[in-house]
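=== RUN LOG ===
request id: a7f3
mode: sequence -> structure
chains: 1
length: 248
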Amino acid sequence: MNQMFKKASSVLTAVVCAASITFSGASLVLADGEIDDQTKTTIETTAEGLTETIIPLTDEQIEAYMESGDDFTENAMTAWNGAKEELGDMKETGSVEIEYSNDEYTATVPVTFEKEDAEFIYVFDKNLTPTSLSVDVKYSFATTMKNAALNTVMGLGTVFVILIMLIFLISLFQFIPGSGAQEAKAKKKAAEEAAAAPTPATVAADPVQEADNSELIAVIAAAIAASEGTSTDGFVVRSIRKINRKKR
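=== RESULT ===
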């Protein structure tokens, strides 16, 4: 008898022991997979007793049972420890449902808790000894939608974080010597410097030529003033242009 049975009531212990002696390692199964009443009663009593024994256990007791060395006890404690935080306090248990297949009995105990409902699913071998337990949490629609929304937000957040990291990594390429980004930046800088550079100064005019033009302008202005009988103050010679005349 494993350690979980030690926590059950004396009545439960008596029933289990009596069932083990009665069946002597073999339970009766009727035609079409139906289970005889005595086997059904034994499994129901055992499943309900184990459920009511497991749920009130403290964290210290659970940790102690997880190191008991008994396969079923450790399996049951692991299953319950992983689900109890989501369920809260127990309210009531429902009717046990039993199925028989491949020389194994599966007993499902529905339990109503403060936060969520759950099903304690036990597997019994042909000797009516429990071999495993799983706790299936039945989430409500509101909880399911809340979890879906949280998963969506976490997924989108992860995508954005990865994109930001990629952008940051790509921006670092410009500091890598020989990279295309650095070469493009250097070419752009050279083009800007070339555009901003001042154009070469125009070749300065010959001062001798400028002086000759000034004298010529003064002579022409004086000749025009003499022919018109006026002074050079009355007009200004702005340009001198050579006219090519055809020889006759």
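=== NOTES ===
DSSP finds nine helices and five strands in the chain.
Residues 176 and 212 are 64 Å apart (CA to CA).
=== END ===
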